[in-house]
Each structure stands twice: as structure tokens, then as C-alpha cells.
Amino acid sequence: MTRFAPSQPDLFAPSAEPEPQRDPLAELEALLRRLRAEEEMPWADAAGAMAEELHALGLARSAGPPGEALAAAILQETERLLAASD
Length: 86
Fold this sequence. Notes:
mainly alpha
């Protein structure tokens, strides 16, 4: 008889390596590049746009003043895309 059920993980096994944290500035720069390349909103609805804006603001807080400047540019691009969809 085995000690573990097939779906039960081994509680004493070594834990997996945590994923390395991504650089918030690099993420913000990538998002800004993506938004500047778009002609239409890349999100299905306003809720998706808002979620992406909140994510950008969270990254900006952890990146300091350079991140805040990138977040402001991201919000401007989001406004441009929202205005184009009206």
C-alpha cells in the first residue's frame, strides 16, 4: 500500500524554484510599445482596459518615478485607443 494517493503531492518534496521577478520598467515599456502600435483597442471591453491600467499603475508604484512617467504615457495611449473606438 502506498502512502500517497495519485493526486496528492508530496508535502516533503523540495519546492520548485520561484520564478524570477520581471523588471517592472521592462514590462511597462513593452506595454507602451504594444499600445502605440495598436490602431484599435486591444481589449474586448472597458473592463479589460481598466484591468490593464490598474496593472500598469501597480508596476509604476514599484518602479518609482521612471515607472510613473511610463504609466502616464500608457494611460494617454489607452485614452487615445478608447477615443478611436467611439
